[in-house]
Amino acid sequence: MQRTKISIIAAIAENRAIGKNNKLLWHIPQDMKHFRKITSGHPVVMGRKTYESLGRPLPDRTNIVVTRDKLFRAKGCIICYSLDIAIRTAGAKDSQEIFIIGGGKIYEQAITLADKLYLTVVKGNYEADTYFPDYSDFKKVVSRKDREDSKYKFTFLELERP
């Protein structure tokens, strides 16, 4: 039996900044569309703070929220009390690929478990209080597409371990 692929998807700055005050550092419609296209139909695993920043479950995906708060509830979501349980739960829903979608603490825990990264790398260095973990182990470039909109230059990057 094939193991479920664990993928991480994130938008990061060149200095690996991802957020400040529980908010993303930018709003890039092309990135949101890219995120939706890649994750739709697959389970998504996120931390409680990420869920709260979204404010609702993401449509067309099994939403799994990781929290230590035993009283936390989120309508339309599966609640798990560890990343390990969340990954096993997600794998039972989709044996092909699951997505870790944030935030910072969940990324830190998941980076050593991940098979693939889908990164939107936004040009520039940003001030943040949350950063994406070191991903230098992911050296194999599967895909690279440079893009820009009226405000940002960015690259859609897919990386795997060699």
From TrEMBL:
The protein, known as: Dihydrofolate reductase
Species of provenance: Candidatus Gottesmanbacteria bacterium CG11_big_fil_rev_8_21_14_0_20_37_11
Gene3D superfamilies reported for this sequence: Dihydrofolate Reductase, subunit A
Boundaries of every DHFR domain copy: 5-161
PANTHER family: DIHYDROFOLATE REDUCTASE
InterPro entries tied to this protein: DHFR, DHFR-like_dom_sf, DHFR_dom
GO cellular component: cytosol
GO biological process terms on file: dihydrofolate metabolic process; folic acid metabolic process; one-carbon metabolic process; tetrahydrofolate biosynthetic process
SUPFAM superfamilies, per database record: Dihydrofolate reductase-like
